[in-house]
């Protein structure tokens, strides 16, 4: 049966990206050696990093004066590298969920942190709107897409200080005004590649302002100077990233990705909104296009388990919600097809119809049957 991959991360990649990577792992560029067993400094690998860098600059319209880096350590290491390299005295953070909180925790090791706003009291079900950022902060850190809670800042915030953005789970899903940012970072395993590489786009002249001594590996300048080759970079994830970028360009770039993201999300949210069994978990205006979170309404709570089992049996993978939210989460990254979302919508529709007998489909009825007494009116 066809499987639809709704995993939150690591997550779906275009099939051709996986296939092309697999080929290069077997025989890189026809040289008779695997991509896994050649030097990162060889003349065959340098063009991979060069082309990936050029495509990132082209696709995101990165202005002059920015460097593109491929680092290890995941987005989580950036939580520490950001304040190490940018926090002189005071930094502002918008607290919109688990990942923001982790970034804030690290920043506090380096200086004063102003939490400009937080939706923690409401279990991060919305993105705070009316807040101001002190003008004497070194930067404002935002998490553009909250992978766990399913909220998203879909446009670049206006702030009186430079922005720093954790875009791990929505990078390349929309155009970004890079000039507003001193730094953008993204762990690759949500929208770009397999786990193992982190993309960093950093403004050169924003560096070198802190007085503290920065360990060599944690200093962005080390990696800028050495073209991401100070130490051995994760060559296979970087190669996969290149293949994804080629696919992105061929598919119409970030504008087209954004159009597709809206198309997918509109289909699923519309059904959740009309379906009496389910409800979305976050404020409508802040809904993520990437991670669509929904739960069953209280009176149908017992149906969550059979719904998950039924959907899984129909080929839906990874739709169980994160434990902090419960219910379901359908992650719809760039590579997710509209067809995949339609397949999921069909299942949700089928459950609604089953509850409105006599339109129920037989297999869905069977899945729900042991739980249905009390629901049929
Ligand atoms: C997954 C994720 C992270 C953590 O990424 P790692 O690469 O596992 O460290 C950070 N921020 C956001 C928004 C994420 O989705």
Can you summarize this structure?
This protein has 377 residues and is an alpha/beta fold. The chain has helices spanning 15-26, 46-59, 74-86, 98-107, 220-225, 235-250, 253-274, 304-313, 338-355, 362-372, and strands at 4-5, 66-71, 90-95, 112-118, 140-143, 145-146, 151-152, 163-166, 181-187, 198-203, 278-280, 291-296, 316-317, 328-331.
Mean pLDDT: 95
> Which secondary-structure class do the elements indicate?
alpha/beta
- CATH third-tier fold name of the largest domain: Aspartate Aminotransferase, domain 2
Question: What is the assigned CATH homologous superfamily of the largest domain?
Answer: Type I PLP-dependent aspartate aminotransferase-like (Major domain)
> Approximately how much beta-strand content do the residues carry?
15-25%
Order of helices and strands, N to C? EHHEHEHEEEEEEEHHHEEHEEHH
Number of DSSP strands?
Answer: 14
**How many discrete domains?**
2
Biggest sheet overview: 7 strands, mixed
Choose one word for the global shape. globular
Bound chemical compounds: pyridoxal-5'-phosphate
Which stretches are poorly predicted, pLDDT < 50 over at least 5 residues?
none
Number of helical elements? 10
Give the end-to-end Cα distance, rounded to a whole number of Å: 34 Å
Helix content: 25-40%
- What is the CA-based Rg, rounded? 22 Å
CATH class of the largest domain: Alpha Beta
